[in-house]
Amino acid sequence: MNDTGEVEVVVIGAGQAGLSAAYHLRRTGFEPGRDVVVLDRSPGPGGAWQFRWPSLTYGKVHGMHSLPGMELTGADPARPSSEVVPGYFAAYERAFDLRVRRPVGVRAVREGPAGRLLVETTAGTWSTRALINATGTWDRPFWPRYPGQETFRGRQVHTAGYTGPEEFAGQRVVVVGGGASGTQHLLEIAPYAAATTWVTRRPPVFREGPFDEDAGRAAVALVEERVRRGLPPRSVVSVTGLPLNDAIREGLATGVLDRQPMFDRITPDGVAWADGRRVAADVILWATGFRPALDHLAPLKLRGPGGGIRLEGTRVAADPRIHLVGYGPSASTVGANRAGRAAVRDIRRLLAGPRQLAA
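Request: output the structure for the sequence above.
Response:
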């Protein structure tokens, strides 16, 4: 369906952050289709969750918070998260009549006439007074570069393309990355693989005990400080550490989670360190994370000298019409919920329309 038109707000992305923003817009009087349009490039509801590997069951998901206004209850922990969460998101979109348009890819956001922004998409162009960007990171997997990488005769896979442990049966696997995905991959793959090797740039930090609200706020504050200074955001897990649960303890005890320092180069048949040590490998699995998917905002020249986009809360400091939610400190399910609400309150003040601000 091709469309052009004028709206008050465009929301790009219908993951947790985008749906939270759409909910708060709807709740405060913005009519979907008339005042606001929500665009999503994915084929169906669920955000990045619909692309997760089948073995990532709902019971293995860390800290999934419900969307505002509708709890996620009764989910079977043994079901894949790629089924549970998209089903919940689909029900949520219907319950609040959010009218998400998909699949719609956003090609560029440009300056338009009369102080408006032009959102150019595969389904036409929208002119808007304000923009909430909630595009997440899944579309931009980060692949580090190392000497000799192009000579490797085996397979290189990123977390974004991981489909489950069975594909590594009988193979020698090097897993790169010290985050939650890296440890989950290792624990799953080890029973199938001929051998596994875990390498990370920094020694992993395992967190003992409960992660309470004070600790969460402190961690988010560290990430928030970076985006306030205009630096590229780091993940929240980079400052929280990894929870030391039973599976992690077993992996440490059995040697599956025996971390090695980062190799110096890749060889045709594996990886090598400067001290002469080598490990043979059939597969290198890059659990090296993702970067924010913001290329469509490039025409607006929002990035500062530090390489990131400086924010004040969720608002882009250089352009108060634009908010980034699910970015940096709000790149968690609970953070995305709060960011969506904060962005909407700020946009309502900016637009200063006839509607009253919500309490």
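Residues 354-359 have pLDDT under 50 and may be disordered.
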